[in-house]
Amino acid sequence: MSDHDPLRDLWAGQETGNFVMPLEDVRRKARDFQKTILRRNMTEYAAAALVIALFGWTAITVPEPIVRAGCFLIIFGALYVCWKLYGLARSASGAEMDAAQNLMTFHRAELLRQRAALASVWRWYLLPFVPGMAVFLGGVSFAPDNPAPLAVKLVILLFAAMLVAALFYGVWWLNQRAVKALDGEIAALEGAGEDWPVDS
Known about the structure:
Blueprint: H1 6-13, H2 23-61, H3 65-89, H4 94-98, H5 103-119, H6 121-126, H7 130-141, H8 150-191
Helix pairs in contact: 2-3, 2-5, 3-7, 5-8, 7-8
Keywords: Membrane, Transmembrane, Transmembrane helix
């Protein structure tokens, strides 16, 4: 049989070109992404306010100094997380988006910025709570008015620490899933083409 295949030659010789996503689709994706980030951050700030209120009330009502110290450390941890959340993962404003020279470049940079924040969540989101939780759980477990034997106190402390560790792992795992989802978004955006019109 001949190696010449007209259909194959026709397919191989056609011009492919890069697929370019319409600019309005990029604009819509960028706006939806920023709205999602804003909602997430508002939820995080509300959760931090709840943590501060709860442990602030505990620090006022519980006389045990170690427990109170743990409460204050947790409050400081929550404030630090809010500060880092704003610095690392705040949502971009509409003015920033409108001022972007190239919308695709802007959206890609925002995806990368949020990905970096989520990938390092263990350092700025979870670790700041560790000292406060350790002191708080230790103070509760070994409070002077706790009549339980030492072995029971140790078991209670270990069990509480395992629950907190499981919670921290769950938060880390969910954020790693979000990182993978952002990787997919970034790859899809990069695969859609590099030559985008300058947004005016």
